[in-house]
TrEMBL record:
The chain holds residues 64 to 333 of 341 of the full protein. This is 3-deoxy-D-arabinoheptulosonate-7-phosphate synthase. One of its GO terms (molecular function) is transferase activity. Residues 29-263 form the DAHP synthetase I/KDSA domain. Keywords: Transferase. It comes from Stigmatella erecta. GO terms for biological process: aromatic amino acid family biosynthetic process.
Length: 270
């Protein structure tokens, strides 16, 4: 069965689930970890306030983009190094490990110096130079599924990272492009049991990008946990309509708190 084209990430090579440290936390173990925070780091108050808000609701890691690749070159591209510094400040204030996107090989080491967990975004899933470079870095990495990537392609991208020595890879389903036009993406929950049966790597789900509609995000948080996800990546902002990016798919604190209570109930029942 090692006839499967992926080897190191295959469950046949390593039957037991992978678990590893991210800052003080163990990812891939029994605990479902929720990574929450804004699409983009905007201001000190916004990111520190969000860190406190999501921590209170039960999130264990803080997300926030500092280097932001966007569809249009005219959209906000992130606060870059200033954004990293603000994330580090939020970590100092709350103790939460930080998750932030790495956009290219040129800035990888600068981002890796600050981040506890790297986020390799969907646009970069098949950026082989970046995959190889991330494979040389000793930081956990969340590998997001490309918008039109098959599960085999996701696993092969993970193989690139692990083959270079970085075994701390988390696979992340974040919605794919389908014929449906009412929602920007379609969350493919098939990916959760499929990836978990094919690979020993932890599988997270991003319900925010997965449906791209704020009101529907809590339902998909619940569904992802019921499907067996090891963790969630959720966009949260103190005032979503005023968020610089992704406000349409971002929860506010009361919405997030309520969704977390529901997720805990589901996690406790399975
Ligand atoms: C993100 O999570 O910040 C992000 C940019 O997501 P994606 O790469 O899945 O679009």
């Amino acid at each position: 069965l090692i006839s499967q084209p992926f080897k190191l990430v295959s469950r046949e090579v390593k039957p037991e689930d992978s678990k590893f440290q991210a800052g003080p936390l163990t990812l891939g173990g029994k605990t479902i970890h929720v990574i929450a925070g804004p699409s983009s780091v905007e201001t000190r108050d916004q990111i520190v306030g969000t860190a406190n808000g999501v921590k209170k609701a039960g999130a264990t890691l803080l997300r926030g983009g500092a280097f932001k690749p966007h569809l249009s070159p005219y959209e906000f591209q992130g606060l870059k190094h200033d954004g990293l510094a603000l994330l580090a400040e939020a970590r100092r204030e709350t103790g939460m490990p930080i998750v932030t996107e790495v956009k290219d090989t040129a800035t990888l080491l600068q981002v890796a110096e600050v981040a506890d967990v790297l986020l390799l975004g969907s646009r970069n899933m098949q950026n082989y130079a970046l995959l190889e470079a991330v494979g040389e870095v000793r930081k956990p990495v969340i590998l997001k599924r490309g918008i039109s990537a098959t599960l085999k392609e996701v696993l092969m991208a993970a193989e690139y990272i692990v083959a270079r020595g970085n075994t701390r890879v988390i696979l992340c389903e974040r919605g794919i492009r389908t014929f449906e036009t009412m929602t920007p993406n379609t969350l493919d929950l098939n990916a959760v049991p499929m990836l978990k049966s094919l690979s020993h790597l932890p599988v997270f789900v991003d319900p925010s990008h997965g449906i791209g509609m704020r009101k529907a995000v809590p339902a998909l948080m619940r569904a992802a946990v019921a499907a067996g996800a090891d963790g969630l990546l959720v966009q949260v902002h103190p005032d979503p309509p005023r968020a610089i990016s992704d406000g349409h798919q971002t929860l506010d604190f009361p919405e997030f708190e309520k969704a977390m209570d529901e997720v805990r109930a589901i996690a406790g029942a399975i």
